[in-house]
Structure formats: C-alpha cells, structure tokens
Write a structure and sequence with these properties.
The chain has strands spanning 3-7, 10-13, 18-25, 30-39, 46-51, 57-59, 67-72, 77-82, 91-100, 106-110, 114-119. It is mostly beta strands and 120 residues long. The radius of gyration is 14 Å and the shape is elongated.
C-alpha cells in the first residue's frame, strides 16, 4: 500500500550535478529515517546518506562534502543533491525509508531504483 517513487537520475558529465527525489505515498502514519543507497555493477549495495525525521544527517566519507540529503516532511519526500560528480558515483540509487502505517506498526520500504551514470 505504501510506495516510494524515485526520480531525477540520468547521464551527466564528470563534475556535473544531479538532484534525486523520492516521494512516499499511500497510507502513511509517519515517516522516520529516510536513506539513500547505491549499488554499482559488481559491488554490494552501500548506504550513501541518511536523514532522520528531525533533520539530522549522516554521510559516508566517500561522498561527504559533495552530496546533501534533505527532506520535505509536508510532501513526504527525500532529496539527494549530488555535486561534483565522479565516474565512481555511477550506480543505481535506491530510496529507503522506515514508515509507520499505523501508530504501532512500522515497515521498511524500498524504491525501485534510479540509474545515475557519470561519464568522463
């Protein structure tokens, strides 16, 4: 019933920027932490950034300073602003969120993924 829909991926040149969006919809009681993961070919999925419902953020060291995670609670949307992109950032980016569907039940949801390709 709850769905995460991602958008904003695409092809960019090295040094360029992209802004990914992930909107949650459905029967949502509240949204707790929201995260962005990525998975490059031949590699395991890794956490890129996370943001709590209160706005506290965490980043992996590799992207720190180049990527910013933010959220709009009124729109149930999380964003990932990526600047100074490198070919190493090429991956499928996935949105993830812990969502309460009622006062007592919380589940983890995943988006379908959006491809980010950085050319050199």
């Amino acid at each position: 019933q709850v769905q995460l829909v991602e958008s904003g991926g695409g092809l960019v040149q090295a040094g360029g920027s992209l802004r990914l969006s992930c909107a949650a919809s459905g029967s949502i009681y509240s949204i707790n932490v929201m995260r962005w993961y990525r998975q490059a070919p031949g590699k395991q999925r890794e956490l890129v950034a996370a943001i709590t419902s209160g706005g506290s953020t965490n980043y992996i060291d590799y992207v720190k300073g180049r990527i910013t995670i933010s959220r709009d609670n009124a729109q149930n949307t999380v964003y990932l602003q990526m600047n100074s992109l490198k070919p190493e950032d090429t991956a499928v980016y996935y949105c993830n969120a812990g969502i309460r569907v009622s006062a007592n039940y919380e589940y983890e949801y995943w988006g379908q993924g959006t491809q980010v390709t950085v050319s050199s």
